[in-house]
Write a structure and sequence with these properties.
It comes from Pseudomonas marincola. This protein is mostly beta strands and 327 residues long. Helices cover 14% and strands 39% of the residues. Strands 3-4-5-6-2-24-23-22 form an eight-stranded mixed sheet, with no helix packed on it. Strands 1-21-20-19-18 form a five-stranded mixed sheet.
Length: 327
């Protein structure tokens, strides 16, 4: 009976899905392989000051300034030493799995995102430790003190329950007083924190959104996979989510995370030459600006159909009418 009801639900819903308008395709302007990242695995991008910066989830003590004046782009390392981690209330079992994984593959801190404010502070998101490392222009890095309710509320909402499906994206407003974090998948969600200096809190609920569901990745030939977020970007009082499996970027409302409009990059990403032997998307990093979007690919150990095996940064043009266009 349960299977029958499920089948009937899909049948009834099919016309609704079929009538949904496909998102506008973004135009690819350039494709830029990145050399010089020792372990590869480009997992976060941010335009800070006069340069594009990147992080790798396999390297703990460095961020990369991307030299875009050469071809291929050259990643130039800036090294640092992170201080000891604060207690973030993760379960003991998850802490141990993160520690063991870091020993085996490298990258104990597992940096999955980078953002920056107008004062030049950079913020690195550690997935494995559910923490945010602040790197000021001058002075030593420090871990932000997140409120104790943060992890508790997230887990109560069904977020951050699964190893390697924790925090995957970070966005900071220019004033450095508002921060949004993205929970990756199973369930995916958006969280908001407010602060000044190192005094961060939840203003109302920490969790703006928590949702389950699946998506069929276009042209990948795989079955349904969990909906996900793989990065965030703040632009013009809107939040932009990178949705790797759906191959799209969506504009969302800051206070609720409600989707307003989406744009697809599937047409450019899934040409025969750019295909990878994987049922998962590779887009891991996002930065939005007035002229367009920077998208970073974490290709890991995969080689593309055309033989390219380096991390890649794509440049897409902003949609006609700009990112602010109405629904």
């Amino acid at each position: 009976m349960r299977q029958l009801l499920f089948t009937l639900t899909l049948f009834i819903s099919a016309p609704l899905f079929a009538a949904t308008e496909a998102p506008e395709e973004l135009k690819l302007l350039s494709e830029n392989p990145v050399a010089g990242m020792e372990q590869g695995n480009l997992s976060g991008l941010a335009w800070c000051g006069d340069a594009l910066w990147a992080v790798s989830d396999r390297e703990d003590g460095r961020v990369y300034r991307l030299n875009t004046d050469v071809s291929p782009w050259q990643a130039e390392a800036e090294t640092f030493v992170a201080p000891p981690l604060p207690d973030n209330m993760r379960p003991w079992g998850m802490k141990m799995r993160g520690w063991i994984t870091g020993l085996i593959r490298g990258g104990d801190l597992d940096f999955e995102g980078i953002s920056c404010d107008s004062a030049g502070n950079r913020y690195l998101l550690s997935e494995a430790h559910a923490g945010v490392l602040k790197m000021p222009p001058a002075g030593e890095p420090e871990w932000l003190t997140l409120p104790k309710t943060f992890m508790r509320q997230a887990r109560a909402s069904g977020l951050l329950l699964h190893f390697n499906a924790m925090l995957e994206g970070i966005a900071i407003d220019p004033a450095g007083e508002r921060m949004w974090l993205a929970a990756e998948r199973e369930r995916r969600g958006l969280l908001a924190l407010y602060g000044k200096s190192n005094n961060w809190r939840c203003q109302g609920p920490c969790v703006l959104q928590s949702e389950s569901g699946v998506v069929v990745a276009p042209k990948l030939g795989a079955g349904p996979v969990p909906k996900d977020y793989s990065d965030l970007s703040f632009y013009q009082e809107k939040l932009f989510t990178l949705e790797r499996q759906a191959h799209q970027i969506c504009r969302r409302e800051l206070e609720t995370g409600a989707v307003e409009r989406c744009w697809s990059f599937a047409e450019a990403a899934l040409t025969d030459a750019r295909r990878y032997d994987s049922k998962y998307g590779m887009a891991e990093a996002l930065w939005i600006d007035p002229e367009g979007a920077w998208l970073g690919l974490d290709t890991g150990a995969h080689t593309r159909a055309d033989g390219e095996d380096r991390s890649i940064v794509w440049r897409f043009a902003a949609p006609k009418g700009g990112w602010e266009q109405a629904e």
